[in-house]
């Protein structure tokens, strides 16, 4: 075993990365090998699994610059790979002179299967472990193609929309850069040749020059084939999406053969759309893959409108999407609306924000024409539409000190709406992990930064109350179950009264929920739960709920009172009314 420890000389000195370069790589490409590693926050003893790309030595400068730019794309979205860091390690001699520099790209660790592998029937990860999501999707690919395409393609569009909205184009969209994770997510990965939109037309000194082709010809738009950088924009990705939509529907690429022949066909030949057995999808693909950019969909949002209409026509109802355990959620991220498509996109944006169905009925499909882009209307152009505000938006704002207060305000709005993730996050922002060493084990270092940026003071009483609120919203998340169990086992140091029965129930339920969690992640929690359960073996497990535990910090002028509903008496509950029994908030007794 050869463990390499990395630290970014220009970054946080408390953050280090570790990986074993003698282990089997997760993958290997032209830039380097990718290993599974860990990100360690030394200040809080927090560890997180990551993927670390160890770049080959003696790479050209322009390759290093691409890797640096790839690592700088920090867009947080459920359908995008999260980039974390770019680490340079300088090797020096005894005199401090630099002998060599080693480069590493750090991203989130994904356990999954690439879409191109899934299309060939592979449903296990690189270790041979089955991927349940991939198995279900492959069965749909074989037996219910429209259902498969609707679910997969809309997730891909969601990631592209988020990337475009954040000011980047991918330029390498194809199934090998789409991953189906074991957690049931579909993610766009590999930003190696992505570019900021505002850099188009201004070639980078070390990167791509006009006349050079970069990407994969099988999915490349004409402007990409020609190396015409000044005209590469979000519509370049839309062309690739159109090619991939053809492939998903038909089962093979529209143009195949030697690369030079494929490149020529991308420039001059029409797609064999007669092979697509769906009238509406044919029109969608035709519009997405127009040779002239101005004839394509101008935004991913416009593309999504027609996909949603197709999904709706197959379903015979409003668009919606179901995730795994039946929990429906909105996944759309909108984009800037082009003036030339103001009417269709403004109308379609409202429809696209609604939930998109995962399941199709193939009976009685309704053929629906795709409306051509109308001329610019005489009515005023609608203003740019902002995307729905989510917990990810709040986190992004709070990670920046200049926008932290706006982020915290958004977080509070989401908490008021009953958002589980927002309520749990807020509880952790108030939680002090320093009381017990093990409390910091699963404390995310980003929480510390958000708390500091927002000027939040530790308050474990408030943290526990918010954690109980989160539990009432969703009682099946192993993370909050574990934290709640720790609260009830520890007692006052964590803002509540000690109750071994509650703690035991929470830990037992967390263990059940961990059965569906990747092994390494689950093992960390299970080890801690086993240690904590030792002293609870004689306790009778009981679900926290009707009994509200309160530990209040008294004001200087008031006597200290510790209350629990069990001791307060039934008269108190009857006087409060049935609807308020679980919503008490005692302060300053």
Short description:
The chain has 589 residues and is an alpha+beta fold. The protein has helices at 61-72, 115-119, 132-143, 145-165, 222-225, 234-250, 259-268, 279-288, 300-315, 342-353, 391-398, 404-416, 420-430, 445-454, 460-473, 478-490, 500-513, 519-533, 565-568, 570-576, and strands at 3-6, 15-20, 27-28, 32-41, 46-55, 83-92, 98-108, 112-114, 168-169, 178-181, 186-188, 195-196, 322-323, 327-328.
Q: What does the largest sheet look like?
A: 7 strands, antiparallel
Total number of helical segments?
Answer: 20
Radius of gyration: 27 Å
Structural class by SSE content: alpha+beta
What is the helical fraction, as a range of percent?
25-40%
Shape: globular
Oligomer: single chain
The average pLDDT score comes to: 78
Low-confidence stretches: 203-211, 316-385, 546-589
- Number of E-type strands: 14
Q: What portion of residues belong to β-strands?
A: 5-15%
The CA-CA distance between the termini, in Å, is: 58 Å
